[in-house]
Amino acid sequence: MPLPIGDVIGLMVDNLNKRKTVFPIPHKRATEWAKGLNIPEGGKTVIYTGSMYQLLPYMIAAVKNMELVEDSFLGKFVFMGRFFNRMFNVSAFVSMPKKADVKRYRQIVHNIAKLLKKAGVEFGYLYKKELYAGTLAYDLGVDDAFSLQAKRVYDLLKENGVSTVITVDPHTTNIMRSVYPTIIDGYDIEVKSYLEVLAASDDFQPIHSVEKEITVHDSCVYARHEGVIDEPRQLLERAGYTIKEPKDNKALTHCCGGPIESIFPKMSHTIGTNRVQQLKDVTNGGAVATMCPICMASLKKASGGALEIEDISSFLVKAFCD
Amino acid sequence: MTKVNPDFIKKVTTSEEFNATACINCGVCTAVCPMDVELLPRKLFRYALLGLEDKVLENTNVIYQCLLCKMCEENCTADVHIAENVRFLRSYISKEVFKL
Fold first, then answer.
1. Is residue B1 part of a domain?
2. CB pair distance less than 8 Å for B64 and A10
3. Are B63 and B44 a contacting pair, CB within 8 Å?
4. CB of B15 within 8 Å of any CB in chain A?
5. For B44-97, what is each residue's pLDDT tens digit?
6. CA of B43 to nearest chain A CA: how many angstroms apart?
7. Neighboring chain A residues of B90 at a CB cutoff of 8 Å
8. Domain membership of residue B23 as a residue range
9. Which of A197, A201, A256, A264 has the most CB atoms within 10 Å of its CB?
10. Looking at beta carbons, which residues of chain A come within 8 Å of B34?
């Protein structure tokens, strides 16, 4: 028996309404990636993480528990979890992340900020004030809760005098650039992915030579929703990497399966396994670059360690930073 | 047995988000879908356009199985906003069934 969809979505929506995120994590965990980078608080241009990378270690842990519940009699009791979650954060008990995952995903955001600094981009960060953009609520069709969250994010940006945000993941890019304008009158925030910002900077050049074959796994959201296809390739080539393309690539990229993981973990794993096979077919001793935290988690899990799969920023930082 | 629900037809056809009326029934969307589920998305939209609310609701699982990856949209020759249509049905279920 699949997980009870209404209760699972309800739990996330309750979190969004009560705790302003679908998956509450400590503020410290959301902001610690910025340690040592001396990023000023606020400013007209800010890096906006939406906590997507920071949330992933917790979601990985939660999904592992949900896989145990899926197809078991325990699924009938998810409604109780939702009931108690209204009083205290039940999510914290079902999602104790691995330290290695916390470190890995924190390092990715840290690397992205380092790359932006290296390119001479001036930006601030909203630290504890930053809010989740509401992606999951939008995808699941919970429009009232999503609209409320979108308004909260827009108000936050306006109150802090932000006019441009640099996003670090495709989902937050899509929501803030293409969805918010459809529901917020007068939405006037400029939204750019860090990949677009870096690719547009001619002065951003590598300082170390790297020789490696990198297979590019395009994110569906970047490639088909936002048209971010050339930028990651331009950056990898500029860095000195040799690009390999899987069978389904660019605008016809194959999904990693991640978007349905919170409700159908096993089905999601099957889609991820299909994609991993395509990546394996062209990756011979090299590595795979992802550009979305959900893709990275899904494909790493599906590959079972058979492929080196890392976020694109991990490869770029080796060439462009000290 | 199922029965056509005229109110459901009205909600679907008057919605700005649901544009499956443009569908030419070529079936490419289903052929390229990585989920390999027969109902996704063409048949599902047909049920919705015909007002077969019961059939739509009994396939709630399938509606949430869509990855919203837009592989179908990329190949659609009729410019149907497939992902947005799926989101419309989810929104309908969220409100009418899950009361969210």
1. no
2. no
3. yes
4. no
5. 999 999 999 999 999 999 999 999 999 999 999 999 999 999 999 999 999 999
6. 20
7. 140-141
8. 6-96
9. A256
10. 254-255, 271, 274
- Half-sphere exposure for A161 (CA within 13 Å, toward CB): 6
- Inter-chain touch B98–A6, beta carbons under 8 Å: yes
Which of B33, B57, B63, B68 to mutate: most A Cβ within 10 Å? B68
Q: Which residue of A has its CA nearest to B65?
A: A260
Whether residue A78 is predicted with pLDDT greater than 90 in this model: the reply is: no
**In this complex, which of A2, A10, A220 lies closest to B70 when CB atoms are compared?**
A220
Residue A52: domain span: 5-199
Percentage, residues of chain A above pLDDT 90: 77
Judge if A150 and A172 occupy the same domain: yes
Q: Do the domain assignments include residue B25?
A: yes
Q: Which residues of B touch A224 (CB under 8 A)?
A: 69-71, 73-74
d(CA A52, CA A299): 16
* Final residue of a structural domain among A144, A179, A199: A199
* pLDDT tens readout for residues A15-55: 888 888 888 888 899 999 999 999 999 999 999 999 999 99
Residues A216, A255 share a domain: yes
Q: How far apart are the first and last CA of chain B?
A: 28
Whether A194 and A240 map to the same domain: the answer is no
Q: Does the residue B92 lie in any domain?
A: yes
Q: What is the CATH number of the domain that holds A266?
A: 3.40.50
Same domain, A14 and A80: yes
Q: Are strands A287-290 and A124-125 parallel, antiparallel or unpaired?
A: unpaired
Q: Which of A138, A142, A263 sits opposite B100 (nearest CB)?
A: A142
Residue pLDDT, tens place only, B7-37: 999 999 888 889 999 999 999 999 999 999 9
| Nearest C-alpha neighbor of A107 from the set A41, A37, A211, A8 | A37
Q: What is the ipTM of this complex?
A: 0.95
Best A14, A17, A140 residue to mutate vs chain B (most B CBs within 10 Å)? A140
Residues with Cβ within 8 Å of A174's Cβ and at least 6 positions away in sequence, in order, are A135, A221, A225, A226
Q: Into how many domains does chain A fold?
A: 2
Q: Quick one: A222 and A297 in the same domain? A: yes
- Write down which residue in A166, A199, A232 finishes a domain: A199
Residues A120, A214 within the same domain: no
Angstrom distances, CA of residue B25 to CA of A306, B8, B56, B57, B62:
41, 21, 18, 22, 19
A211 and A175 belong to one structural domain:
no
**Partner-chain contact A2 B88, CB within 8 Å:** no
